[in-house]
Amino acid sequence: MDHTKVNELKGFIDTIKARPELLQLPELRFFKTYLESLGATIPEVEQSSSEATSSSEEEQMPRTHETHGDSSPKHPAPEEEEEEEEPPIVDPPKPDESIFNDPSDPERLEPESEPVLPSGPVDKDLNDDEMDQQAGLKQEAVEAMEDGDLEKALEKYTKAINIGGATALLFARRAAVLLKLRRPLAAMNDADAALKLNPDSGRAYRIRGVANRRLQRWEEAHSDLAAAQNIDFDEATEEIHRFVDEKWSKIAQLRRDYQNEVEQNDKLRKEREIKKRRTAAQKAYDAQKKAEGSTSSSAEGFPSGGMPGGMPGGMPDMGDPDLQAAFSNPKVMAAMQDMMQNPANMMKYMSDPEVGPLLQKLMSKMGGGMPGGFPGAPTH
Predict the structure, then answer these.
(1) Residues 80-107: pLDDT tens digits?
(2) What is the pLDDT of residues 34-78, one digit of tens each?
(3) 17, 184, 343, 360: which sits with the fewest CB atoms below 10 Å from its CB?
(4) Which residues contact 378 (CB under 8 A, 6 or more apart)?
(5) If you ran DSSP here, which 8-state letter would residue 70 be given?
(6) Contacts of 153 (CB under 8 A, 6+ apart)
(7) Cα gap 328→340, rounded to integer Å
(8) How far apart are CA 323 and CA 352, in angstroms?
């Protein structure tokens, strides 16, 4: 047997005995598996005595410095810098659009409590008598308006509408009377009925727009008056339209400012979430690299190739049927454990008829076989 290789194997075993934690290295997993197949118990990784001694000495260093009068403080290991907490994101309150309402506005009206007025079936086909009756009522309403009798005009228009088959113009005329009687909700209801019959009724849009303006519903008033002026421009309505536009422009700007701030906050939240995820991913990556570095550093000083001294071949193939049969023999397993504890005992097993052939085969697979002149070795 090559004494150099035996000494290398002995050195390897001594290294493992001194540092059993090396068996946990991935490159020595095959050897750990081999030992466990022999019935060996692999100890848990514990702090080596040298590391414990070093740690103990480090703990005593501050007291030693104090004894010798060394006033220089011991610098603690740098800690990870804590992330500065970012200020919370606070959404703005919804804008109060009522600030544009003027309680002292002389044109302002409160919603009335009276119910809306009834109307007859608009899809009714009138006979000649009904048509004559309706025409007479409309004429009486016009005359009442000229006399300034708004209540009578309202009564006549209502009777005419209740006959049925009312036109968009008839509803718009009664809406105008209702608005003059300070009944904006009823006027808007008739304007709605007129627009259902004629979506291009400029008069209906105008009456509803003025009603909304007097209720200080600036957005609706702006929309209705703009539609009315586009369909049928009226010089008298233009002044009201400009007044409403000024109010609406301020409200629209207030809404835009609010929406912009909300969108900026949403964008900031997304940016913070992305930053948070990136930071977490970076920490996980750094922790993984640190763990990999720790594993690599624990193998420092261990020769490359997995076996001390570059022993060729590594461990034999445990799938060999002869080896499997030999390792099932309790005597062989006991001998292998004895040799693992003391490699020098290998010599006494070379002449054993059961263990010797196994050792010869193992050594052959691990690097060239056993020299034929080795004392006690079986000869071929």
Answers:
(1) 556 678 899 999 999 888 888 888 899 9
(2) 777 777 777 766 554 444 444 444 444 444 444 444 444 555 545
(3) 17
(4) 356, 357, 360
(5) -
(6) 141, 142, 144, 145, 177
(7) 17
(8) 16
Number of H helices, E strands in the chain: 14, 0
* DSSP annotation string for 51-96: HHHHHHHHHHHHHHHHHTT--PPPPPPPPPPPPPPPPPP-PPPPP-
- Please report which helix (H) or strand (E) contains residue 327, including its range: helix 321-327
Q: Which of 170, 165, 228 is nearest to 199 (CA)?
A: 228
> Can you state the angle between helices 168-180 and 184-197, rounded to 10 degrees?
170
**CA-wise closest residue to 213 among 259, 167, 242, 244:** 244
Q: Structural domain boundaries of the chain? A: 184-189+199-288
The third-level CATH classification (topology) of the domain covering 184-189+199-288 is 1.25.40
**What is the DSSP track for 213-226?**
HHTT-HHHHHHHHH
Q: Is the pTM of this model over 0.85?
A: no
Which of the 8 DSSP states describes residue 2? -
What amino acid occupies position 303? P
Take residue 375 and report the two structure tokens written for it. Answer: 């004392």
Here the tokens at position 103 are 């309680």
